[in-house]
């Protein structure tokens, strides 16, 4: 077996580390060409020493220089690159077959697009890339001859329940009537509404079932994550939000379901461990060891389902509305959400103020046709500017917005 060359964008994050764990269990199948991070010099240094990639990229230029100095003594053959150009380069190298797109947020868009343009097999964890510019991204995948495989556990489950010939982006299979997108409901599903304003970042990041990065943990707590996933599902499975039903399933054992026209519902089950969807994408259409504990269905005992409460989770409603509005609305939604979540994590914004920042930004900027990448990136920039003014005025209420 010739090993596949792989670039891991976001190697130091939660998905990146899990990807390296799965690769470590199947070393004959993969050759690590490049590892990337933002500014975690220590984390990427340790990974470089252990996995010996050809390239290491730090998005932050100062961090890249520090890494270069440290690697001189430990692994001098590794070429250290910096900045967005470095990220895009390692996403498109000839020796790379497969790109794990696991940078968090809009920063992951350009390298993921570059992987699509260069016809790579893209393992997509960075859902924000599809939310920001789904139409352009799917076109780039098609035009570049890339293969797009969903890492997000729900979308990976849906993919596994699709007809065997289905590949994301190839159109909606006629025999499918609905997608049932499951959600745990996060840590505050049952918290009295009047207690939500005082939620701390630590409480929001303590997800009951999944161990994830901080941004997606907050998104799960507000259910914006599910909203982003509705949009992601619409692009991957060529459907509309009206055919993506969000179902709260607190145990996180069923990772999503597909309803067929004949009344059948297919579900994918497993322990909540991202190594399963990562291994599925890495090996597809084969199966490999992921190191995940076998599901003990008897000890789980019961599976519960309920409808989401949109009054408790306004971010889910905002995402559904942004999908309906089309154009640049979901890019604006995503950018405002990133700013609001950052501000919440920095202690500048209350948890319950997050949806207000997003809604006000959406209504201030309106919707434009997402005709080019420049239009989308401009909407993203304007949304960040406006949302930061709102955050500023929320943290200093004496200054008018
Ligand atoms: P983490 O925050 O754990 O990791 C993010 C990674 O991206 C790190 O390697 C980080 O580097 C890097 N990064 C951050 N900012 C930048 C930037 N500006 N430029 C370049 N690299 C950057 O995130 P997760 O692993 O949790 O999530 C990654 C993506 O996967 C997200 O889009 C998330 O929605 C998605 N996802 C995650 C799941 C999970 O279980 N964690 C499940 C499903 C989807 P550094 O360490 O240096 O900061």
Task: Explain how this protein is built.
The chain is of the alpha/beta class and 401 residues long. It contains 16 helices and eleven strands. The strands form two sheets. Strands 4-3-2-1-5-6-7 form a seven-stranded parallel sheet, sandwiched between helices. A four-stranded mixed sheet has the order 9-8-10-11, with helices on one face. Strand 5, helix 5 and strand 6 form a beta-alpha-beta unit. The termini are far apart. The structure holds NADPH dihydro-nicotinamide-adenine-dinucleotide phosphate (NDP). NADPH dihydro-nicotinamide-adenine-dinucleotide phosphate binds next to helix 1, helix 6 and helix 9.
Question: Keywords, please?
Answer:
binds NADPH dihydro-nicotinamide-adenine-dinucleotide phosphate, globular, 11 strands, 16 helices, 46% helix, 401 residues, alpha/beta, four-stranded mixed sheet, single chain, seven-stranded parallel sheet
What's the helix and strand layout?
Layout: E1 4-9, H1 14-25, E2 30-37, H2 41-51, E3 55-58, H3 61-74, E4 79-82, H4 83-92, E5 98-101, H5 109-117, E6 121-124, H6 127-144, E7 147-150, H7 153-161, E8 176-183, H8 201-204, H9 214-222, H10 224-236, E9 244-248, E10 254-260, E11 265-269, H11 275-283, H12 297-300, H13 314-325, H14 329-345, H15 354-365, H16 373-395
Parallel strand pairs: 1-2, 1-5, 2-3, 3-4, 5-6, 6-7, 8-9
Antiparallel strand pairs: 8-10, 10-11
Helix pairs in contact: 2-3, 4-5, 5-6, 6-10, 6-14, 9-14, 10-13, 13-15, 14-15, 14-16, 15-16
């Amino acid at each position: 077996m010739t090993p596949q060359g792989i670039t891991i964008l976001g190697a130091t994050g939660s998905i990146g580390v899990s990807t390296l764990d799965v690769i470590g269990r199947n070393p004959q199948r993969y050759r690590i060409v490049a590892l990337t991070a933002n500014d975690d010099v220590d984390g990427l240094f340790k990974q470089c020493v252990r996995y010996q990639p050809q390239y290491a990229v730090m998005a932050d230029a100062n961090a890249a220089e520090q890494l270069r100095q440290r690697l001189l003594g430990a692994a001098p053959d590794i070429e250290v690159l910096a900045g967005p150009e470095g990220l895009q380069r390692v996403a498109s190298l000839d020796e790379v077959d497969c790109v794990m797109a696991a940078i968090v947020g809009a920063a992951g868009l350009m390298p993921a697009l570059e992987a699509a343009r260069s016809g790579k097999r893209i393992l997509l964890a960075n859902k924000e890339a599809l939310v920001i510019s789904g139409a352009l991204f799917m076109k780039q995948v098609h035009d570049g001859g890339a293969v797009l495989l969903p890492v997000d556990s729900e979308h990976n489950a849906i993919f596994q329940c699709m007809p065997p010939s289905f590949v994301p982006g190839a159109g909606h299979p006629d025999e499918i009537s609905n997608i049932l997108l499951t959600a745990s409901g996060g840590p505050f599903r049952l918290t009295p509404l009047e207690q939500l304003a005082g939620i701390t970042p630590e409480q929001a990041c303590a997800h009951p079932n999944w161990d994830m990065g901080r941004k997606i943990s907050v998104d799960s707590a507000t259910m914006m994550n599910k909203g982003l996933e509705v949009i992601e599902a619409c692009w991957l499975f060529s459907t509309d939000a009206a055919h993506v039903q969000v179902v709260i399933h607190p145990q996180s054992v069923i990772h999503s379901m597909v309803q067929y026209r004949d009344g059948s519902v297919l579900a994918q089950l497993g322990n909540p461990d991202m190594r399963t969807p990562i291994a599925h994408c890495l090996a597809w259409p084969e199966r490999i060891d992921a190191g995940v504990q076998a599901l003990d269905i008897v000890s789980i005992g019961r599976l519960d389902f309920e409808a989401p409460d949109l009054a408790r989770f306004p971010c889910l409603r905002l995402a559904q509305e942004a999908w309906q509005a089309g154009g640049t609305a979901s890019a604006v939604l995503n950018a405002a959400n990133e700013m609001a979540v950052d501000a919440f994590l920095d202690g500048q914004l209350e948890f319950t103020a997050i949806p207000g920042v997003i809604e006000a930004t959406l209504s201030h900027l309106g919707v434009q046709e997402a005709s080019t990448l420049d239009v989308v990136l401009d909407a993203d920039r304007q949304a960040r500017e406006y949302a930061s003014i709102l955050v500023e005025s929320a943290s200093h209420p004496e200054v008018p917005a």
